Amino acid sequence: MLKIDLHIHTVASLHAQSTIFEYVNRAKELGMEVIGISEHGPDLESNHADYNYFNTILRIPHWINGIRLLRGVEANIIDKDGNIDVTEEMLKKLDYVMAGFHKNAGYEDSGKKLNTNAMVGAIRSGKIDIITHPFVTFIFPADVRKISEEACKRKILLEINLSYIRERKLRSDTLENLKTIIKTVKKYKQKLIVNSDSHNVWELGDDSSLDKIKKKIGLTDNLIINNYPKELFKLLNIKM
């Protein structure tokens, strides 16, 4: 069970089923310490979380019922230069920014080389803290090794996204990409982050699917920054 989970979607993302308050209550039941609400960026089609939502996000308190609540976003890479749908005004109000490729968000699959360049551009922009599901290359092909090395050099966290390793979704290429990411993280003596990508409270903090493949992909607990809150908060430049 994760003590910290920073990839959570609420009903504001339209395709999720739970509210912030329901997540907070569930986190308290599970004995979690920190959760982060990270709706999809405003350029994703069929999404209630528009620019106005993020510009008023400061009205959500940082503490609710003893749970630390962080305000984040899962931004969309929107062009081949790696720009994301997060404005400077939004950046001032967010605790952290995650970013990745998503369908129906402005960027179309442009092939492995250009997709890789777009992701590297996002990493170099200085605007993101976490790359979401970088191992999911069957939708947007990309050079996982190159992306991982660029992220590690700049201390951008690579995410193990649990929604893509549950048994119903686990693919052989996913496992190989995860091995590449973990080898690269070890090479650069960095850590990675594990997130649930929850779309309802029953998925929150549940890392049971990861336990089944940890040994196979070479993942050890000392590589998971969720286990080191002070280090994570320092990396995100957040006061504990």
How are the secondary structure elements laid out?
Layout: E1 4-8, H1 20-30, E2 34-40, H2 51-55, E3 63-64, E4 67-76, H3 88-91, E5 96-100, H4 112-124, E6 130-131, H5 144-153, E7 157-161, H6 172-187, E8 193-195, H7 208-211, H8 214-217, H9 229-235
Parallel strand pairs: 1-2, 2-4, 4-5, 5-6, 6-7, 7-8
Antiparallel strand pairs: 3-4
Helix pairs in contact: 4-5, 5-6
- What is the beta-strand fraction? 15-25%
CATH architecture annotation: Alpha-Beta Barrel
Mean pLDDT: 96
Rg value: 16 Å
Structural class: alpha/beta
- Which range best describes the helical content: under 10%, 10-25%, 25-40%, 40-55%, 55-70% or over 70%? 25-40%
> For the terminal residues, how far apart are their CA atoms?
21 Å
The helix/strand series, from N terminus to C terminus, equals EHEHEEHEHEHEHEHHH
* CATH class membership: Alpha Beta
Low-confidence stretches: none
Assign an overall shape. globular
CATH homology superfamily: Metal-dependent hydrolases
Report the count of strand segments: 8
Number of contiguous helices? 9
Number of domains: 1
CATH topology: TIM Barrel
Give a short account of the largest sheet.
8 strands, mixed
